[in-house]
Design a protein that fits this description.
Blueprint: H1 2-39, E1 45-47, E2 50-54, H2 55-66, E3 69-72, E4 79-82, E5 87-89, H3 90-103, E6 106-111, E7 114-119, H4 120-123, E8 129-132, E9 143-149, H5 155-162, E10 171-175, E11 180-186, H6 187-200, E12 207-213, H7 219-232, E13 245-249, E14 254-260, H8 261-274, E15 285-289, H9 295-303, E16 312-316, E17 322-326, E18 336-340, E19 345-349, H10 352-365, E20 371-382, E21 389-392, E22 403-404, E23 429-430, E24 437-440, E25 443-445, H11 448-455, E26 461-465, E27 468-472, E28 477-493, E29 499-518, E30 523-535, E31 546-558, E32 563-579, E33 594-614, H12 617-636, H13 641-646, H14 652-667, H15 671-684, H16 689-701, H17 705-716, H18 733-746
Length: 752
């Protein structure tokens, strides 16, 4: 019974003490308005005097006093004793609360609108405040992270000095690169450590600053060398590591040094030895300006020469057996070669004896490179044609001949009035001088121009291209002639019933690539690549198909000999429609005025290539003069190709051909091109009724009704063709169509 009474008394005492404290606070709270009126503030004063009170009750008391929210960790346990006979302010009461927590191994960590009460060991990993020196008042005793900047001493040295003075729950980090110390601890401990740091972080009396002028060496290079030397040296045991700063001042070519007196003298002596005029040996650095070779390509050759790592080389003994002998290096690793692209020069560094070896190699490689003038003839021959080719190397004297212009679908690629020597050349590529003979069947032609001239009017032979090009020895030369044909890739219709089409353009062309390589015996090695792409079906313009023939080969010929490549057989499909304008478009009855044709022909592709070696610029000038003289002779002729084509005296067949091409353009609605062809056809033959009628149709579509009416009347006024005067009195269908068109225009009808 007595034991139970003592336990009850022991539990009641703390409660009575807490009630007594609350009774003390209430009068003070009631007196606070008076204090506020007297002092003009809202500050309250309390008396805190606890004896062996549970710490959680003390936390609740501070929470009610300061109106702050606390979250208490489960590890927070213990008894609190505070002896404070005098009254203190509410702010000082909270500081006392922080000190009580520190004494018992706890800390208050703010976290938003609440404060966490946790063990001090956990506090350093919580969201504690980070401050710099001077940002906290002296009375605060909460856990913070303090950042301290050092001015003179090393951060690692300060860390080693303070570590024994810190508690187990504290954290200290030294950042030597930036000279910072980072401390996490109660502010009371941090304040004590700050006093120690201030006493240590003072300038040394032995440090000084000096300026060292340089006469020969570069301030930047000397600064890097000396700085690396002193930065790499470790501090002696028991001594402070010295901070040496060296700043290059390029304007005066000087060094600004900040170091101790001993180190400054060492730096001065070292710089004096480095700042000397170094005599440059003649073989150390050389510059060679190249006259013919390319500097960048020559560097690759020189740096890939065999060295002493190439093993052994095989040599022939007197008995014919191979023996191994060490391979001497051509150029050692001490030699460096750099190319300067702007001046096409080589910069070489290395010993003099090595330089002489390199210079000898460069002189043998830096020689004028020969050029090769290439002439080619690409032609198609129908398989049914009796066309056998044999090459005979005769001493025939030929000259500039032949050429081509335009492409396979253009009327300007015709060869007209080509004489044997010299030939009449159209605009475009031309052939060069040939001095060999070519035998086809039993006939020997003096040059390629004679071949072209012999077969220019032969429908079984089609000259595709006669290109010429000048290139350097062992450099690829290429030429490509053709047109860009549109291919439909997709057709679609939108929800609004609008059609749209996507096109892709592809090349339909003749391509020729040749890489010549000339040896000292004037024998030319030719790497030849030929590709001929032709349209198989020109009628289906939306989806054209092509036929490709390619050839790749390597041949060896002498200078000015002709190479012949043949045997590439292909098949051409031709489809066409011929009809009387307007009448041929009448449904059903229109078949009486039109016809269609389809034909297939197999063709054999032949390629003639003749190389001409050009040794020096004088030969280039001579070749240029010959070409220029030939072209001037062509242009001085009264009827060159262009003039004969556009202003001929009389050629009805040519007029019909132009009219047919114009009609094809008219069907494709290419009005400008169609007008051009019809106009040229009328210049050739003014009585071409089809050209007059179709040109009138073009005028109607362009809205030029007066011009169309005039052209229709010219059709009606045309004389009948020869041999038809005595025929029946039946009206000419073309004139009947012209009358119908005139009536439509006169009655105010719309154009076609």
């Amino acid at each position: 019974m007595l034991m139970r009474t003592s336990i009850v008394a022991r539990n009641v005492i703390p409660v009575l003490v807490l009630l007594l404290v609350l009774l003390v606070i209430e009068p003070l709270g009631a007196a606070s308005p008076k204090a506020v009126q007297q002092s003009g503030g809202a500050q309250r004063f309390v008396t805190i005097d606890f004896n062996d009170v549970d710490i959680n009750l003390f936390i609740k008391y501070i929470s009610e006093l300061t109106q702050k929210n606390f979250i208490v960790d489960r590890e927070v346990k213990g008894k609190v004793t505070i002896i404070s006979p005098t009254r203190i302010s509410e702010e000082d009461a909270y500081r006392v609360f922080e000190s009580v927590l520190e004494v018992h191994g706890f800390a208050a960590v703010p976290s938003g609108s609440v404060i966490k009460i946790v063990p001090s060991v956990q506090a350093r990993s919580k969201n504690i405040a980070t401050v710099r020196e001077g940002e906290l008042s002296a009375g605060e005793d909460k856990v913070v992270t303090q950042i301290i900047s050092l001015k003179y001493v090393n951060a690692e040295e300060v860390k080693n000095l303070l570590t024994p003075l810190m508690s187990k729950t504290s954290v200290l980090i030294a950042h030597a690169h930036s000279g910072l110390i980072i401390l996490t601890d109660f502010y009371s401990n941090i304040a004590r450590l700050l006093d120690i740091i201030r006493a240590v972080d003072v300038p040394s009396d032995s440090e000084e600053m000096l300026i060292i002028p340089l006469r020969h060496a570069s301030a930047e290079s000397v600064s890097k060398a000396v700085g690396q030397l002193f930065a790499a040296g470790p501090a002696q045991k028991g001594m402070r590591q010295e901070q040496v700063r060296i700043i290059p001042f390029e304007r005066n070519n000087a060094l600004i040094v900040f170091a101790s007196k001993t180190s400054a003298q060492r730096i001065r002596n070292l710089v004096a030895r480095l700042d000397e005029d170094v005599p440059r040996q003649e073989g150390n650095l050389r510059v060679i300006y190249l006259q013919h070779a390319n500097a960048e390509e020559l560097v690759k050759v020189l740096m890939n020469l065999p060295d002493d790592k190439s093993g052994s080389r095989s040599t022939e003994t007197g008995g014919g057996k191979a023996s191994s002998a060490p391979s001497a290096p051509a150029i050692s690793k001490e030699v460096k070669v750099v190319a300067d692209k702007e001046t096409n020069a080589l910069i070489i560094t290395g010993p003099r004896e090595e330089y002489e070896v390199v210079e000898g190699v460069i002189k043998k490689l830096d020689i004028p490179r020969r050029m090769v003038y290439l002439e080619a003839l690409i032609m198609e021959v129908k398989v049914s044609k009796d066309f056998s080719i044999g090459v005979q190397w005769a001493n025939a004297d030929g000259s500039v001949v032949g050429g081509f212009s335009g492409n396979a679908s253009s009327p300007y690629n015709m060869l007209k009035q080509m004489t044997t020597s010299p030939g009449s050349l159209p605009a475009g590529f031309t052939l060069g001088v040939l001095e060999e003979g070519i035998k086809i069947g039993d006939v020997v032609f003096p040059n390629l121009g004679a071949v072209v001239n012999a077969y220019k009017s032969d429908d079984d032979v089609n000259v595709i291209a006669t290109p010429q090009i000048l290139t350097t020895d062992n450099k690829k030369a290429s030429i490509k002639v053709g047109e860009n044909v549109p291919y439909i890739t997709s057709k679609n219709t939108t929800d609004a019933e609008q059609d749209y089409t996507n096109y892709e353009y592809k090349d339909v062309a003749t391509s020729l690539t040749i890489t010549p390589q000339v040896n000292q015996a004037e024998v030319v090695r030719l790497e030849i690549g030929v590709e001929v792409i032709k349209l198989k079906n020109t009628e289906a313009t939306d989806t054209p198909s092509t036929f490709t023939r390619t050839a790749e080969t390597t041949v060896v010929v002498h200078n000015e000999q002709t190479v012949v490549i043949g045997g590439m057989i292909g098949q051409d499909t031709t489809s066409g429609e011929y009809k009387v304008p307007v009448l041929g478009d009448i449904p059903v009855l229109g078949w009486m005025f039109k016809s269609r044709s389809n034909s297939q022909e197999k063709t054999n592709l032949y390629i003639f290539i003749t190389p001409h070696i050009v040794e020096n610029p004088a030969e280039i000038a001579d070749l240029y003069q010959k070409k220029r003289a030939t072209m001037e002779a062509v242009h001085k002729q009264p009827g060159d190709i262009a003039d004969q084509f556009f202003h001929p005296t009389s050629d009805p067949a040519q007029s019909v051909a132009l009219s047919d091409i114009g009609f094809a353009k008219l069907q494709q609605n290419e009005l400008l091109r169609a007008r051009e062809y019809f106009t040229q056809a009328l210049k050739v033959d003014a009585n071409n009724g089809a050209a007059l009628f179709n040109l009138a149709v073009v005028c109607e579509r362009e809205g030029k009704m007066a011009e169309a009416e005039s052209l229709y009347r010219k059709v009606l006024a045309l004389p009948p063709p020869p041999g038809e005067q005595a025929q029946s009195a039946g009206e000419d269908p073309l004139k009947a169509a012209a009358k119908t068109a005139l009536k439509r225009l006169q009655s105010g009808g719309k154009g076609i």
